[in-house]
Amino acid sequence: MAHQLLKGKKGIIFGALDERSIAWKTAIRAVEEGAEIVLTNAPIALRMGKINELAKLCNDAPVIPADATSVADLENLLQKSMEHFGGKMDFILHSIGMSPNVRKAIPYTDTNYDNFLKTLDISALSLHKVLQSSMKLDALNEWSSVVALTYIAAQRTFPGYNDMAEAKALMESIARSFGYHYGFAKKVRVNTISQSPTITTAGSGVSGFDAFFTYADKMSPLGNATAEQCADYCLTLFSDYTKMVTMQNLFHDGGFSNTGVSQSIIEEMEKAAQANG
Q1: Strand order in the sheet with 89-94
Q2: Of 9, 151, 169, 258, which one has the fewest beta carbons inside 10 Å?
Q3: Which of the residues in the chain have pLDDT under 70?
Q4: Which of these, 260, 234, 251, 261, lies nearest to 95 by C-alpha position?
Q5: What pLDDT, on the 0 to 100 scale, is given for residue 45?
Q6: What is the structure's pLDDT at 94?
Q7: Is residue 1 part of a domain?
Q8: Is residue 178 one of the residues assigned to a domain?
Q9: Cβ-count burial of 155 within 10 angstroms (0-12 exposed, 13-18 middle, 19+ buried)?
Q10: 217 half-sphere exposure, CB direction, 13 A CA radius
Q11: Spatial separation of the C-alpha atoms in residues 52 and 16, rounded to whole Å
């Protein structure tokens, strides 16, 4: 059910690849709630994904290619978006992450450092570049909201997450640091959402994902948060109801981040111990 939570607001959604993407679902929900949007992704992702299908579902939203590691691309995106909207914007979703080391199944202890630098640039520094370009071009209205998606591997070790853990930790730090400066300068809010393991094209590429997805679901009192639920949470942060929330890493994980162990996990371990008895 739509409530026109974002009526009159305008924003950019980065990273929608296909219908499993959190960015895809956020784009659809933002439009349902009254927002106008521009869609963007890296040129190669635009060729591989289905973003033109999404654009049709979002009132024929413009699709503007941009490599988020390129300041020139980002400035072009922001300028063209403001031309399209006839003014500044109110929200940005940063849903960007990629690790060549993960894609090539290179173990963390054998990290290829050229790949590592690409991971940090794509998955973390891109947020800084988006924010810096937005501030330079004065592209965001006062009280605008920038949200970036992250994961608890920034705080805790999950072996299969590889160098993406460092990237997410860096990204969260950028959100805090830039949130401070952007808040004082323009009242712009910057937050990260630490989402449950989610069945997306990107998430499913992490080693051992299926097993951990099940584990997290059994560990979390409310179960894993879905991509649709994460999209709804993004909307609340884009809205005027969260005007005083900034520089936060917000866990959206069904309680996983504060659970030591669940009874169902204990029972499974006891059964396994008896079976091996």
Answers
A1: 36-40, 10-14, 89-94, 140-150, 189-195, 249-252
A2: 258
A3: 1, 201-207, 277
A4: 234
A5: 84
A6: 98
A7: no
A8: yes
A9: middle
A10: 9
A11: 10
Could you give the CA distance from residue 250 to residue 112 in angstroms, rounded to a whole number? Answer: 31
Give CA–CA dist 241/33, Å, rounded. 14
Instruction: Give the pLDDT of residue 123.
Output: 98
Give the largest Cα separation in the chain, rounded.
70
At residue 110's C-alpha, the angle toward residues 109 and 113, to 5°, is 110
> Do 126 and 267 meet the contact criterion of CB atoms below 8 Å apart?
no
Assigned domain for 2 exists: no
Number of other CB atoms surrounding residue 213 within 10 Å: 18
CATH code for the domain of 100: 3.40.50.720
Tell me, letter by letter, the H, E, C secondary structure of the chain: CCCCCCCCCEEEEECCCCCCCHHHHHHHHHHHCCCEEEEECCHHHHHHCCHHHHHHHCCCCCECCCCCCCHHHHHHHHHHHHHHHCCCEEEEEECCCCCHHHHCCCCHHHCCHHHHHHHHHHHHHHHHHHHHHHHHCCCEEEEEEEEEEECHHHCCCCHHHCCHHHHHHHHHHHHHHHHHHHHHHHCCEEEEEEECCCCCCCHHHCCCHHHHHHHHHHHCCCCCCCHHHHHHHHHHHHCHHHCCCCCCEEEECCCHHHCCCCHHHHHHHHHHHHHCC
Residue in the block written with tokens 């520089």: 247
Alpha-carbon distances, residue 102 vs 38, 83, 206 (angstroms): 29, 38, 7
Phi, psi of 141 (to 5 degrees): -65, 160
Question: Which residue range forms the structural domain that includes residue 189?
Answer: 10-275
Total of domains in the chain: 1
Would you state the pLDDT for residue 205? 60
For residue 261, which amino acid is it?
V
Q: Is residue 3 part of a domain?
A: no
